[in-house]
Design goal:
Blueprint lengths: L6 E6 L6 H15 L3 E6 L15 E4 L8 H11 L4 E5 L1 H13 L5 E6 L12 H5 L4 E4 L2 H10 L7 E3 L20 E4 L8 H11 L3 E4 L5 H13 L6 E4 L14 E4 L8 H8 L4 E4 L3 H6 L7 E2 L4 H9 L7 H8 L2 H15 L2
Helix pairs in contact: 1-12, 2-3, 6-7, 6-10, 8-11
Amino acid sequence: MKTTGLKVIHVIDTLEIGGAEKMAILGVNSLFDKNINSALLLLVDRGALYNEVHKGVKLFELKRTKLLSYQYLNKCCEFIKTFDIVHVHMRYNYKYIRLVQVLFNLKIKVVLHDHYGSIDKEVSVPMFLKIFKPRYYIGVSKSLTSWAGLSLNIPEKGIFLLPNCISKKKVKHLVGKNKKGLVVVGNIKPIKNQLFAIQLAHALNKHVTIYGKNQDDAYFELLKKEIALLNYKDYVHFNDHTTDIQGELYKYELALHTAKSESGPLVLIEYLAQNLRFLSYSTGEVFKTIGEEYPDLFMDNFAITEWKREVLKEIEPYDLNAIYKNHFSETKYTQDCINIYSKIMM
């Protein structure tokens, strides 16, 4: 594709810790590195991951405090009106940008990049997506792109699959006995199912470190009660402040991913990139991409005894880094993204 003259802006509310936020950063950084005229618009604030945006990337900050304030709607219009493609991450941000587009009659191409992680359990169509049906839709999983065609009736030519990926970081490594216990990554809420991970760690008599912010007070209290019931306080460690997850993974023997539903998840790709063996529930695009070829990495149930047996089983180690390079590398993602823009601009 000839990218000369193409102007793309990525839009997200904030760069707090999360998969969609990391993809927004990767998207705008990779375009910048390719010398494509690109920018990033933050609707609310910067967030913990802001410093990962490359120096030199053009940044717009709306600093919105009132959702439907005309002042902010008009200011947002000024930010985006000169771009060819407005690449919006997550549904609620898309709703806001489409409102701006309609209100000010902007002749721009708005793309919804859908990161919704519960699509295998919740397939209803939000009312705003019926009103503002996307013309261009990017899904991070085949479940999402299928849903977009069947439930939103978006024509096939406007639907694109763009699986998550990461930029691999060079980090230190430990070997053998220096590694300590299990690691779980994901913000604390019921769908992430940290309760099962704690119960499994107890069954294995292993330390477990859980990285992620508390997003559900009631569920966090449930976790603490379970830890007390198991008398396992000294073995469960919470970390809600670390943003460089890849830089932490060398410390652990094994990663667990116990979420009940996912779109990616991005963290499995981080495990692959850092060659950390993991055991994950069979959900999301990573499972659909590599699960058949690498079945020992995935479980299809939540039975403690079966997970324990799988963890303890001696298996021939996979070259996880090679899996990352073949399926989830930054280079592949960037090229796929540019190809999508090419089709949108036809």
